[in-house]
């Protein structure tokens, strides 16, 4: 009998915790995994009165009320296409497939059309918050057919994290791949946010001479103010964590960062869109270069500049202001990419709402996000977040600190590519001349690519060779 509200496919970390979250909110959940072991383990070890395990896909599908809602929490890529193809013959017109994995938005656009051709609705749903978020309330970014959103809305709004004002961190994002796109760029911002925090640690430790325990206290203090965020909070805990084997855990962790590639997707997509997200790209590159084969060798052969530690409160405050400014630039770049994508893919993204669903549940949740929502509510057509009065004031107030800490880091050889890119982005934006006139002249010289003039309308070519041959 079809009694179940939703089916979840994929009983690994995310799927099992989301199923429990749904069940806690009173929804009847059917669960299925393509190999039976995970389902068996889950229903045995974490039984719930609202959850029923299935080992046969047809029986799983038959258990669901119509229109059927089936959510995938499985590995992105081919497994998603394979599950869709297994379901198509046993689903009926109007049924809804929801892919909650970290799928590439281009794949989601293709699958949306593919399912539509088979009479099915397909949602690409960005989910952020990891295991705890899935269990207690994640940030949810659904993209798909607007007309059927009402069918899935009650479930996802119920299980989503709730922001300080009680509102669910779940909102309809846009058609086809919009939800996965917003999640992808969210991850790009997350890369930038984490890199800025990592560079802050380097500055305090190697330029400032602070111990891990002191840095923990500094981060705890910062987490009471405008920098309050999940990542600053957990970083404060990490700096204080002792290793049972002696010393501190952080100092025992190999200095080589991993990645699953969503930051890289964001950078590649920004290149395609022609949007400058240099800070986010710098964060991706920093993870790559942390794994560079020649690091040990370079350490031995490239001499380090001598420098003196700057152990004083003014330095710490300059770092704090720089971190805040870096965050502004990271979000300004991410939201510029949203703006461009919204036009390219005709998604009509609501930037204020996007910022509002990042306020809780997700990894980048921060006090700061309220200010982004307010900025877009005040001016939905905002060209760039840096022009919002609140952020502009911060940029102008904090830029001297950013310049100062970059100079200090450069002198003592502390690598801070994210901070440096934040400043380069702002300087390129505000400078009267960025040298593009010379680029155009060079292009016109060697390739007759033409140029525009500042004193006349039209397109021009100059006879450079004649001048050169003189
Ligand atoms: N972990 C996080 O913090 C997080 C946060 C947000 C989003 N996500 C995304 O959520 C999804 C699930 O993540 P996860 O960490 O729970 O699990 P995962 O390790 O990414 O994926 C494992 C799941 O995929 C299933 N699977 C593998 N190949 C399959 C196939 N050919 N057909 C059907 N199912 C297949 C596995 O089943 P078997 O075990 O039987 O092979 C298992 O249920 C992923 O797309 C992930 O990127 C993860």
TrEMBL record:
InterPro entries tied to this protein: 6-PGluconate_DH-like_C_sf (IPR008927), 6PGD_dom2 (IPR013328), 6PGDH_C (IPR006114), 6PGDH_Gnd/GntZ (IPR006113), 6PGDH_NADP-bd (IPR006115), 6PGdom_BS (IPR006184), NAD(P)-bd_dom_sf (IPR036291), Pgluconate_DH (IPR006183)
The EC code for this enzyme is 1.1.1.44
Catalytic reaction equation(s)? 6-phospho-D-gluconate + NADP(+) = D-ribulose 5-phosphate + CO2 + NADPH
Per UniProt, the keywords (alphabetical) are: Gluconate utilization, NADP, Oxidoreductase, Pentose shunt
Q: Subunit notes for this chain?
A: Homodimer.
Family according to the record: Belongs to the 6-phosphogluconate dehydrogenase family.
NCBIfam families named among the record's database cross-references: gnd, PRK09287.1
Q: Indicate what this protein is called per its UniProt record.
A: 6-phosphogluconate dehydrogenase, decarboxylating
């Amino acid at each position: 009998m079809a009694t179940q509200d939703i089916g979840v496919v994929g009983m690994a970390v995310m799927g099992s915790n989301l199923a429990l979250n749904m069940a806690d909110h009173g929804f009847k959940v059917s669960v299925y995994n393509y190999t039976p072991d995970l389902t068996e383990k889950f229903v045995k070890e974490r039984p719930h009165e609202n959850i029923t395990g299935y080992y046969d896909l047809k029986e799983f599908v038959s258990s669901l009320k119509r229109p059927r809602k089936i959510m995938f929490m499985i590995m992105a890529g081919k497994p998603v296409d394979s599950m869709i193809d297994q379901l198509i013959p046993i689903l009926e017109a109007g049924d809804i497939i929801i892919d909650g994995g970290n799928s590439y938005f281009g794949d989601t656009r293709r699958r949306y059309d593919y399912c539509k051709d088979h009479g099915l609705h397909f949602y690409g749903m960005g989910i952020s918050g990891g295991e705890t978020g899935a269990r207690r309330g994640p940030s949810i970014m659904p993209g798909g057919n607007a007309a059927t959103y009402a069918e899935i809305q009650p479930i996802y709004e119920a299980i989503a994290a709730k922001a300080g004002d009680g509102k669910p961190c779940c909102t309809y994002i846009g058609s086809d791949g919009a939800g996965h796109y917003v999640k992808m760029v969210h991850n790009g911002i997350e890369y930038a946010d984490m890199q800025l925090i990592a560079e802050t640690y380097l500055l305090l430790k190697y330029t400032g001479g602070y111990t891990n325990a002191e840095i923990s206290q500094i981060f705890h203090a910062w987490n009471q103010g405008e920098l309050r965020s999940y990542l600053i909070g957990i970083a404060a805990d990490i700096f204080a964590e002792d290793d049972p084997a002696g010393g501190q855990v952080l100092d025992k962790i190999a200095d080589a960062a991993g990645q699953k590639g969503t930051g890289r997707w964001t950078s590649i997509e920004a290149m395609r869109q022609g949007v400058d997200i240099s800070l986010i790209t710098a964060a991706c590159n920093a993870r790559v270069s942390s794994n560079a084969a020649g690091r040990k060798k370079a350490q031995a052969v490239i001499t380090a500049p001598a420098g003196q530690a700057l152990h004083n409160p003014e330095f710490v405050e300059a770092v704090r202001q720089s971190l805040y400014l870096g965050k502004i630039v990271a979000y300004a770049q991410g939201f510029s990419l949203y703006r461009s994508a919204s036009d390219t893919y005709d998604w009509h993204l609501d930037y204020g709402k996007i910022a509002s669903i990042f306020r809780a549940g997700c990894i980048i949740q921060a006090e700061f996000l309220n200010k982004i929502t307010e900025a877009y509510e005040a001016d939905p057509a905002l060209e760039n977040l840096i022009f919002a009065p609140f952020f502009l004031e911060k940029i102008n107030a904090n830029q001297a600190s950013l310049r100062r800490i970059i100079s200090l880091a450069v002198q003592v050889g502390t690598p801070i590519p994210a901070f440096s890119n934040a400043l380069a982005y702002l300087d390129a934006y505000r400078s009267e001349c960025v040298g593009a006139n010379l680029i155009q002249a060079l292009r016109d010289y060697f390739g007759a690519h033409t140029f525009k003039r500042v004193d006349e309308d039209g397109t021009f070519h100059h006879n450079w060779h004649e001048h050169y041959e003189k």
